Amino acid sequence: MHTAHPSSRRDCLSLGLGALATCYLPWVRAADVSRFAWGVASGFPQADGMVLWTQLSGPALPDRVDVRWEVATDAQFKNVVARGVEVAEASWGWSVHAEPTGLPPERWFWYRFQALGDQSPAGRTRTAPAPAANAVLKFATASCQRYDMGHYAAWRQVVQDEPDLVIFLGDYIYEYGSRPDALRRHDGGSVSSLEQYRQRYQQYKSDPLLQAAHAACPWLFVWDDHEVDNDYAGLQGQSLQTQFAPQRAAAYQACWEHLPLPKAMRPSGSEARIYGALNWGRLARILLLDDRQYRDPQACPKPGRGGSNTVARQSCPELAAPQRSLLGPTQERWLEQAWDTQRPWNLLAQQTLMAPFAWSDPAGTEGGLVWTDGWDGYAPARQRLLDRVAELKLPGAVVLGGDVHTHYVTELHRQPQDLRSPVVATEFCGTSISSLSLPQARIEAAAKFNPHVHYARGDARGYMGFTLSEQRLEARLMAVDDALNPESPVRVAARFVVEAGRPAIVKD
């Protein structure tokens, strides 16, 4: 049975907020059971292609299923420009990761899948500009979408913004169980097995607003800790369990199965390389980091546990140990060579706040309080990174982060503890899609000890929207009025600008 459908993404947006989530739902239903219940997605755009993702659903799936895919220049698929077949296998959760190539650069396309008598929703995706092309990039950054703490009104606004790209910076799912009074409860308790992780992803991906955001444009993705276990570091879990590698392997597999990640990122056991770089014409290089898989354990943890702590800087000498690394030696060496000195912008997409943030007066007793899970817990590694940015004289180094459920806008000095040293990069660390933050009063009380932080608000959920040109980066800090309401308005809380060649935060 064929149903009416909008002919373009702009037609989708014209339907209004109430109908937006259904705009990307299946247009053709031939089977009695939905085989594409978790929608479609695309990611990692190149100048001639991208990753197209879906996953089969429903009962009694064969172990191997041929899934047809096609890419068209129009919503009616009258002009199909690429097609192929992928095999969805039970051993990989019946996920599909098609990688069409040979497409023209800097173009928008529609794509869809067919299998077992059913047709998927159609999604929109695009190719990146050609390597030497002048370009503009409109993108959003987002992170931390705990399902049981709020609705996804932020994703509704992201779709309305019509970005070229979404960069997701970690905590796509949360491994916890839910409190009895949670807004919408996680199915089951805490997760640790492959099947449990799969079910958790599928619950998150059942949300129509998240499906719409995936269908609207390609994504880049890096994970943080909650895709596996809170505060995990390398092969050490928070509870110091002796058999953490099998849990990490299960979590990494489920993550790859449920997101539009390239086949090259498919995990092998408990290892998967997700760090890398992507160019956007001659405008920017986007560098993606992994700050979990290779890091040293956090310094000075709580007795009998792994993971983070808040400690007085001078009471924890381990914080200053020169060999400590958040990225691991191999990834650090890769990053040293991956910066682009020819393009005007380098966007460093990583998981958390990079700027130092003292939670008490650093001039007071024992040097002030710092949180050990972020870059403050790995200060020598941060120093090496900023030294390299300074040595290369990068004209537009911008750090993008998430994790801390707070909008932070900062300037990064070459010597982070010496604000008289030159500013070498700017930073935009975004709040959460739905996960709760610390009380704003506590954030404000600490912000006065951190004059390099130009904005610090954790009292709203949301995301960050950006427009990047050769001349400037324009940032909009977006705030959801009520994260408990899926229909909530989303407003611009603040605007900032960074001019090319001048690493300084300017309030717009």
What features would you describe in this structure?
The protein is built from 9 helices and 24 strands. It has helices at 9-14, 17-20, 153-161, 194-205, 208-216, 244-258, 329-338, 379-392, 440-447, and strands at residues 40-43, 51-55, 64-72, 80-89, 95-98, 108-115, 118-119, 123-126, 137-142, 165-168, 219-221, 276-280, 284-288, 310-312, 345-349, 369-371, 397-401, 407-413, 423-429, 453-457, 462-468, 472-480, 490-499, 506-507. Residues 1-7, 13-18 and 24-31 have low confidence and may be disordered. A hairpin with a 7-residue loop joins strand 1 (40-43) and strand 2 (51-55). A 7-stranded mixed β-sheet has the order 11-10-9-21-22-23-24. Strands 12-13-15-17-19-18-20 form a 7-stranded mixed β-sheet. Strands 3, 4, 6, 7 and 8 form a 5-stranded antiparallel β-sheet that branches. Helix 3 (153-161) runs parallel beside helix 5 (208-216) and helix 4 (194-205) runs parallel beside helix 6 (244-258). It is of the alpha+beta class and 508 residues long. The protein folds into 2 domains: 9-126, Purple acid phosphatase-like, N-terminal (Immunoglobulin-like, Sandwich); 137-507, 4-Layer Sandwich (Purple Acid Phosphatase, chain A, domain 2).
